[in-house]
Specification:
It is a single chain. The protein is of the alpha+beta class. The protein has 2 domains: 57 residues; 34 residues, no CATH class. The chain has 4 helices and 4 strands; from the N terminus they run E-E-H-H-E-H-E-H. The strands form 2 sheets. Strands 1-4 form a two-stranded parallel sheet. Strands 2-3 form a two-stranded antiparallel sheet. It is elongated, with a radius of gyration of 16 Å.
Length: 103
């Protein structure tokens, strides 16, 4: 299959959780912002919000662009390294379900 656009980028997974503003301040995070974390920091934060509903969203600027082009009818392909875990599986399935070619 020929593709109109191929993107190469960082395969990021966003975890969206509704929390009180006090929680954001407690962790010294920026409201409405994005923070890259180490695996240890991520575990600490996720442990604190284990009772909250979480929305897992595939992201990364290149992937978001490729997804948008695909949604507009373009034939797209994306290259990005994903982890061999539940988040990596989600990312791969999510991109494919949007019609994006993904290895």
């Amino acid at each position: 299959m020929n593709h109109h656009v191929m993107g190469i980028g960082n395969a990021l997974v966003d975890i969206e959780i509704r929390v009180a503003e006090d929680f954001i301040n407690e962790l010294a995070l920026t409201k409405g912002g994005m923070t890259l974390t180490t695996p240890e920091e991520q575990t600490k934060i996720l442990d604190k919000v284990s009772g909250h509903a979480q929305k897992i969203v595939s992201g990364g600027s290149a992937a978001n662009t490729i997804h948008g082009i695909s949604a507009l009818g373009g034939k797209t392909y994306y290259l990005g390294r994903v982890a061999d875990d539940a988040y990596g599986t989600h990312y791969t399935e999510d991109m494919k379900s949007c019609g994006v070619g993904f290895p």
